[in-house]
Each structure stands twice: as structure tokens, then as C-alpha cells.
Amino acid sequence: MVIAANSRRQLKFVGCRALKILNNWTTSHSLSISMEKTKVLLMFKTAKLKRSPYFSLGGNRISSVKVHKILGLTIDSNLTWVHHARTLSRLLHDLAFKLLSISRTGWGVSGQNMKTWYLTVAERIIVYAAPVWAYKLNSHTIRILRSIQRSFAIRSTRANRHVSADAVLQLAGLVPIELVLYKEYILGSLFRLKSQVTVNNMVYSPSMVDLPESRWFIAPYEFTVLKRIILENQDLPVNYLSYFTNGSKSEDGVGSAFCVFRADLCIHTWKFKLKNHNTFSRLRLLPFYRH
Length: 291
Fold this sequence. Notes:
This protein is of the alpha+beta class. Helix content is 41%, strand content 18%. Strand 10 (253-262) and strand 11 (265-274) form a beta hairpin.
């Protein structure tokens, strides 16, 4: 939920009214919202508020945070994206360490394989959602991203760790990451967001370029709820089995659950708490394995 306002009073009024509508809708449909995952992130253009507004949902206060991760993006209140770059740094260094640890028995990873792994895995993780955040990068964010790229370039060239970033990128044949992000920002804005882009004081619009043919039969924004949910009676067999799975991963832990229905009768349920290193995809697949 995104709310925009010009003052603290207006922000609180509009936010409380929207949350009340949301609470009435969830109550009428017998749904509940996890308060552990619900947070308030205040973003400012100029001056910050001296006192944050109070928001609640169903009588429960929603805690306010300065940094929040949503859909793979770590967003901070100032939109500097420094925290997102730090998150990428920790993630990719952990992945590189795991890759090197499993390859020690085979005399390590060759330089060419390390470069290929960086271009196909690490770089694609960095440029994820680039049209959203790569349009405005400060020097601190670029320095963190450069350190990620430099570590992979040193491993691929077997160069000394004291070699400068520009030199080792030249030896490895890699394009600086800020230029890669800028390219992804331009292409994503033109081809996916269908918005105008200004490059070197020249404005480019989607009508000026040849857009690739879409692979989707229907646009995502046209795929409404009525097309996802079938309300009519399907006249299913009596012994028809339905499986429902769910998984949740938060700071408090990792859990997975599923239930089995025969017609309208629940015949089996299962839930389990997992270790924190499990991924969200594994949470969804584990119930089928257990059953």
C-alpha cells in the first residue's frame, strides 16, 4: 500500500482510512494479515518528520522501520539504495564462498568458469529490477557494487588483490557495473515500463524503437482476479483430492505447511519449522515431498 501526502496530518488521515477499508475487507472474507510482516516505511523528499504518525490495523499497531525488504529490493527511507547494495554484497559473497568450497577437491574453479558464473548468475542478481533503482546511484552505492565486481574479476584473472578495480576489470574483460545498470535501466524503461528515457539530453520514447514481440498472451495488468479464480461449480468427482501449500520466511523463523481436502472435507494437515538457510522455493516443494 502506497500513500502520498503533503503533511503529517494528511498522511495519518489518508493512511488510517485506507487501513480501515483493508481491515473491513479482510474481516468480511475471514482473512487475517500477519502483523510481523506488516511495516510502515516513511520516505521523504526534503525535510523529515519530527514525529512519525501512528498507524494501526485491527487494533494492532504497525511498527515503523527505516529499511524494509520487499520483492527482493531493500528500500530505505531516503531512497539511496545503499542498504540494497550492501544486501547484494553479502548475498553474492556467500554464494561465491559456497561455490569455491564445493570446488576445492577439483583444484578450484577456472578463471573462465568464474567469469561465466559471474555474467550469468551474479550480474543478473545485481541488475534485478534495475529500472526501479538504478536511475539514481550515488558514489557510495557505486563503490559497494564495484567492490562486488572487483572480487569476481580478481578470482577470474588470478590477479593480485592490490590491483585496482579499473585494471582488473580490463584484464577480465568486464564492463563496469554502473554502465551495465544504466543499460538495464534504459532497456527496461523502454521495453517493459513503456516510459520515456533521457540519455545525453535526448529524449527517447518507446515509439522510437522496435519493441520485441511479447511472449505473453495477456498483459499482467489485464489478468484480473476474476480470471484467476473460478467461482462456478466444477462438478468434481467425489474422491477428488485438493492440495494447498504455504510457506513463510521471516526474521522469526522459517515454516512450511500444507493440507489435503477430499471434496469439502479436510483429511490431512501438516506443518513444520525449518532451519533459516532454507529458501522460499524449498518451502513450497517440501510438502509434496513429505506427502
